[in-house]
Input
Amino acid sequence: MTVKEIVLKYLVDNGYSGLLDSESGCDCGLEELFECCDGGNVCDVGYKIPCICGKGHEYDISPDKPIEDGK
Output
């Protein structure tokens, strides 16, 4: 297994949606894992949320698990 495959498996198995680097503002979903990584980033796991960055992305990755309606 590659490192990418190991990380992807961990994220999926534990219900995460992607990775984020709060310092650089970089985030990536499972579909584009590591595309923005320059090799020096230290990423945290996160969850997909509606885009809040104002750049018109389809979604952002947040360290906070989204609150489900009615729960």
User: Anything to note?
Assistant: The radius of gyration is 12 Å.
